[in-house]
Amino acid sequence: MGVAVGTIFGVQTFAAVSDQKSDCASSSQCVSPGKAQADHSTASTDGAVSTGAFIAAGALLAAGAYLFFSAPHASAPATTGLVVVPSVGPGGGGLSLRAEF
């Protein structure tokens, strides 16, 4: 989300700078100084928002990576229970009982 916002405002910044340059090619050839000043202000604001959004996206990515890689790993589930195994042989039969806790 931050990357998308940063990209949108970055594109708007370049558009405002282009508008400013078309209004005033140089300080001696300024057709519309008021419009150029407004475009400059818009470009500055949009540039700041774009930079902030990219910084926020980077910080959230770093925090997510930290949480992902520092999370405890899942261990094998503990096996508990009682196992009864019948046994049959030539001389008789029986039961084996095994408990695990």
Descriptive key words:
about 100 residues, alpha+beta, two-stranded antiparallel ribbon
Overall description:
The structure is a single chain. α1 (2-23) packs antiparallel against α2 (33-70). This protein has a two-stranded antiparallel ribbon with strand order 1-2. It has 101 residues and is of the alpha+beta class. The protein has a domain at 2-70. It contains 2 helices and 2 strands, in the order ααββ. Helices cover 59% and strands 18% of the residues.
**What strand line-up does the widest sheet have?**
1-2
The ordered string of helix (H) and strand (E) elements is: HHEE
Major beta-sheet overview = 2 strands, antiparallel
Structural class: alpha+beta
Low-pLDDT windows of residues: none
Percentage of residues in helical conformation: 55-70%
**What is the end-to-end distance?**
49 Å
Secondary structure topology:
Layout: H1 2-23, H2 33-70, E1 81-89, E2 92-100
Antiparallel strand pairs: 1-2
Characterize this entry briefly.
The protein is of the alpha+beta class and 101 residues long. The protein is 59% helix and 18% strand.
